[in-house]
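Q: How do we represent a protein-ligand complex in a form that can be generated token by token?
A: Start from the inputs.
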Amino acid sequence: MHFAPRDTTPKRGHNTETGPAMVRNNDKTEELAAEDVLPDDPQQRIEWTYAAEDVDRLAKRYDKWAEIYDADLSDVHGYVAPQKAVALLAQHVPKDAMVLDAGAGTGMVGVLLAKEGYRHLKALDYSDGMLARAREKGVYQTLAQADLNEPIDMADDSVDAVICIGTLTYLKPRVLYEFVRVTRPGGVIAYTSKTTVHVTNGFQAVENELSDFMKWRLLERSDEFVPMPETYPDIVYRLYAWQVK
Ligand SMILES: C[S@@+](CC[C@H](N)C(=O)[O-])C[C@H]1O[C@@H](n2cnc3c(N)ncnc32)[C@H](O)[C@@H]1O
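Then emit the structure tokens for the protein with S-adenosylmethionine bound:
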């Protein structure tokens, strides 16, 4: 399959402007160290993750945020994406399914899946700090660190469903091929995508390609909704659910 999306995602261990951060001069190194302090303002914490130049720094920022991530998302931002996504998944996926939570973060999605009755949950995320919080929730059978911009270390057809919430913006669209590969035929892939980057970051092109090649079919594309209504009324998501063929 061929696709050539514009690649705007953070690069592993590489700063696109200046090369590896460690070769910077002392002033710049100090500037970066200062920049890597968790911002006091909850809104700046989100922007701070988006501004990370590479995936390792992104993960370090999430490590630092992990302790208060749940409180920020629930109490400050009024985050509703996990609830909406789990409700959608539950319409299409039986409760005995093996579900991969890709970009599981602190496990907000896993907790809701467990409340719905799902008992076979796997978590992948690149931030150890976020995974540690997810582990404490006690709802995942397995948790592993993984860069979802790389091939996923799982066998073909090994899960019944993939759920990926609030994470796609950080990823390259080829992750969708990996989601299809690890999901058994008949299984379901559900994710949120930010409307402003869905086309420009190449996700729609890969979705269309997978549809054209009859690798999956669309089950649902939600109306637009605001995932963080208390703080970001202009950020708009859609939820997608696909059935793998
Ligand atoms: C906004 S959080 C969403 C977490 C969770 N799904 C939720 O809805 O609360 C985004 C997550 O994506 C993870 N992430 C970002 N880039 C990643 C990558 N390349 N590979 C794996 N995880 C990544 C971050 O570590 C973080 O936990």
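The chain has one domain: 11-245. Confidence is low (pLDDT under 50) at residues 1-34.
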